[in-house]
Structure formats: C-alpha cells, structure tokens
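Quick one, T. Sequence first:
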Amino acid sequence: MPIVPDLQAAAGDAHDAVRDPAVRDAARRAADALAAAFAAAERAVVFTGAGISTESGIPDFRSPGGIWSTMKPILYQEFLDSEEVRLEDWRRRFRMAASFAAVAPNAGHRAIARLVRDGPVATVVTQNIDRLHQRAGVPHERVVELHGHGTGAACLDCGAETALADAEAAIAATGRAPRCGACGGLVKGAIVSFGQPMPPAAMLRAGEASRDCDLFVVVGSSLVVQPAAGFPLIARRSGARLVILDRAATALDAEADLVLRGPIGEILGPLEHP
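Structure tokens:
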C-alpha cells in the first residue's frame, strides 16, 4: 500500500501548501501518481464523499463542527409520523438548497468532469447530495447518487417529482407539508434520510460499475458509512486497482493499491488540464 507523502503534515494550511516548495513538490508527485493510474485504466469509477465538497465550502455531516454536531438528524419514520417533523425537515431542505446554490464546483469536481468527458472514467458514484458533479459538467446519466440529492423532491408513493420552489409555495399557502398532486401521497425532499431504504436502482448501478471497472478511485470519503462503503471492496475483489485520495486515513487504506493523502484540489485539480 504505497502512501504518497502526507501534504497535511507538510503544511499547516492551504496557504502554506501554495507557498511551500516542498508541499508543492509533494502535491505534484501525488498528482502524477494519480494521473498514471488513470492513464493505465480502460474503465474507471470515481467514488466521492463529503471531502470533495467541503473544499467548495459545504460542511460535512459527521466531523467535529459538521452538520450533525449542530442539529439532530431527522429519521425517516419521524418524517412519516409527524406533521411538525415534516415541516422542520422542509425548512432544512430549503436552507440546504440555498447553501448549495451559493457555492461552485471546485478544481476536484472539474477534474473529474474532464476525466469523464475525455476518459477513462465511465461512472461517478457519489455519497454527496449537492449535485456539484453535474454542475461541473458530468452528464447526469453518468452520476450515481447513492443518497439522493438536495435539489428536488418526490412523492413517497408514486415517485412523481416536485420542484422545491413548488413545495415551498405549497407550504406558504397551506401551512402544511405538501402532498402529491397526482396521488395525494407525502412529498419528501429527494435525500435519503436515516432509516429510509437506499434507492435500489442506484445501488444496482453502483454495484455493476464497481464490478466492471479496472480502476476504482475514492475521493474524499472516510469509507465508514455502509452500505456505500462496500463498493470499493467489490471493485477490489473483482480485480480493479483501488486508489484512495483523502485528507485523513480511511477505513480501507490497508486494502488500497495506492493512498494519496492531502487536499483534494491540490492533488486532483491538476488533472483538469493535463
């Protein structure tokens, strides 16, 4: 398990990383190693977690200071059982959508989009709900969203989609959580909540992509959330090379062929313009 030198240990912050020649050299060597892995691949999967989007200014959920340190997550069953909880869930959805709209894809997102456009990345599997990959230029049909997305809503019964603006207008007009205009079912933000079943189609696509690839690159995930964290092992045991890029150690570093540790934008960003 080769580990490219830890950029975090070499520099105290991102500004130091820009100024320090040793850190720039470590970032260049890490970027070169990642570029070589992609160049040797014919069909790659990139698997992304919160770490790529924190560099755009979106907080993660689980780390100290993350979203769950300031508010309790709403469980799926709580959403089903309580009108008061549903309205609080909608307030969170609207705030979250506004925060997503206020940020932009970063160099890591743009590099992945280039690797999808020019090869060899066939599929982007993401745990993120911000849709920054699509905004960076990855075609929607090439992205597998394991945890849904925070930019829309859908009926829990018939699946009919609803725009967030329409849901917000319905709440403003009635004071109640929106119902589906087609079947009357509950409408919920298109995010997979705690206790909510994972989307079967997304899970199937992610599993197929993991089994079919020859390179699986993890970007910005601690690989502790199941079942999503199982996909790197599926790829590894199907014969793919496994590369992990993150700021910190992950649960699967020992399984990887190559571990790259440091700021994602510093390492992945250069691949935007090879």
